Amino acid sequence: MLQSAALSSRSVGIEIEGLVKRFGSVKAVDGVSLAVEPGEFLALLGPSGSGKTTILMAIAGFEYPDEGRIRVGGEDLTWVPPNRRNLGMVFQKYTLFPHMSVLENIAFPLKMRGLGRAEREERARAALATVRLDGYGERKPSQLSGGQQQRVAIARAIVYKPRVLLMDEPLSALDKNLREEMQIETKHLQREIGITVVFVTHDQTEALTMADRVAVLDQGRLQQIGSPHDLYETPRTAFVAGFIGETNFCKGRAQGAGVAGQRIGVTLDGGDVVEATAVEAVAQGAPVRIAIRPERLSLGDPATGLAACVEEAIYAGNATTLLLALPSGQSIRLRVPAGAALASPAVGERVGLSWRVEDARAFGDAA
Ligand SMILES: Nc1ncnc2c1ncn2[C@@H]1O[C@H](COP(=O)(O)OP(=O)(O)O)[C@@H](O)[C@H]1O
Ligand SMILES: [Mg+2]
Fold it and tell me: Is 201 in the pocket of ligand 1 (CB under 6 A)?
């Protein structure tokens, strides 16, 4: 696409090394190191207060770190002021100027950079076309929908060909349908112009939908960075296992010692012995938590597998979720997709649970 070509820039990578940022006694970012590849879409995902915005602000230059380095395209920007970094930013609030037309809004960063009128107009129109809003240039922001305003904000952020686009929860003010539409659209746009994106969100579905890789944060610490598939299939911490997708946690004790990746026996709190895969080294008798996804549990005869009792069956069209009571008294969830061959057991029925040993991940349980 011609317009996209006009906006495409040589994409660059970002390296964050040992980043620490304190606010008084709060360690907002606690030793984060990660690298974003040129042209990559990286999501920073974590609960509220986990340090996502602070990391983005440090990349942008609006916060200076207490420790660590930030490099963009190989250049050390740690102490460079924001206006000299040439990075694009889009925030949750569109922050468009209400008294300016859409085109004037988009051209504004070019005016600040001293470009002439003709070139400003040409580049602003190209950016407007890239976000598929040709013909809307003369309107005021108030005459656009929320999604259109957010597209204008994106156009304004890419019009001066920034090296990197930083986005902080840019879709969270939109309603669900529009948000899902804009997730796909923003992803397409990123691919089209080939720009490196760091995208902050607390919404795991949004992160998994949009990102090439996701960096999961908790309390200012990087828990894991990987593809959506890696994070879902092989979470490295119990936090990631619980935060990405749905997970059952069963408490117990390791029968013997085990190293990472090894099959271990676990005595559950109810007394049953089951098998799991150790994610980290565990000592004999150490408390562990086994994480198992609801859709990875299989139903069978109560004589084989872990005995459980059906407490509730929740039909949701595409799947049925069973709430099952274990001998320990703990309740866990099992999901059967619609159209699965087996009939759903009745409430009160006793069943036997089994799983592939690689789907049961055992984490050390300090608590
Ligand atoms: N300017 C600030 N002054 C004091 N504390 C701050 C400031 N900015 C962030 N914090 C604190 O740092 C932590 C991380 O905040 P933030 O990066 O905004 O998290 P997130 O974007 O993941 O919700 C929180 O405990 C927050 O209260
Ligand atoms: Mg934030």
Answer: no
